[in-house]
């Protein structure tokens, strides 16, 4: 059974790039969300194995809040935080909220 991934980022071009990278490695992208609220609703419905979630999104839930809410689901997915900031206190908060780890957006694939 292939790993099922939900992409969460407020920038459509970033989601498109993430989709290309993830799918090129044979991993199934089962959904995309532009907000934390949308991600939570989608995750409850499609039950992904992994959520790649931006740390800083526009209005509404940020990546920390989204991670905490996802991890409270009955069948919680693993959450990997995506960020451009490698020395951010928010990363620590995301890990404390249950994120499995974080990936920097500016590294080579």
Q: List low-confidence stretches.
A: none
User: In what order do the strands lie side by side in the largest sheet?
Assistant: 2-1-3-4-5
Task: Classify the secondary structure makeup into a structural class.
Answer: alpha/beta
Bin the helical content. 25-40%
The percent range for strand residues is: 15-25%
Supply Rg.
Answer: 12 Å
Order of helix and strand elements from N to C terminus: EHEHEHEHE
Kindly state the number of beta strands: 5
Q: Residue-averaged pLDDT, rounded?
A: 92
In this structure, how is the largest beta sheet organized?
5 strands, parallel
Terminal CA distance: 24 Å
The number of distinct helices, counting runs of at least 4 residues, comes to 4
Spatial shape: globular
Short structural summary:
By secondary structure, the chain is α/β, with parallel strands linked by helices.
What's the topology here?
Elements: E1 4-8, H1 12-24, E2 28-33, H2 36-46, E3 50-54, H3 63-71, E4 78-83, H4 89-96, E5 101-104
Parallel strand pairs: 1-2, 1-3, 3-4, 4-5
Helix pairs in contact: 2-3, 3-4
Overview of the molecule:
By secondary structure, the protein is α/β, with parallel strands linked by helices. The protein contains four helices and five strands; from the N terminus they run βαβαβαβαβ. A five-stranded parallel beta sheet has the order 2-1-3-4-5, sandwiched between helices. α4 (89-96) links the parallel β4 and β5. α2 (36-46) packs parallel to α3 and α3 (63-71) packs parallel to α4 (89-96). It is globular. The two termini are 24 Å apart. The mean pLDDT is 92.
């Amino acid at each position: 059974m292939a790993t099922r991934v939900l992409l969460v980022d407020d920038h459509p071009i970033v989601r498109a790039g993430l989709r290309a990278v993830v799918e090129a490695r044979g991993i199934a992208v089962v959904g995309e969300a532009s907000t934390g609220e949308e991600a939570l609703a989608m995750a409850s419905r499609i039950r992904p194995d992994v959520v790649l979630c931006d740390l800083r999104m526009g209005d509404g839930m940020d990546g920390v809040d989204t991670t905490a809410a996802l991890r409270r689901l009955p069948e919680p997915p693993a959450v990997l935080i995506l960020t451009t900031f490698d020395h951010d206190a928010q990363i620590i908060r995301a890990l404390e909220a249950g994120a499995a780890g974080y990936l920097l957006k500016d590294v080579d694939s």
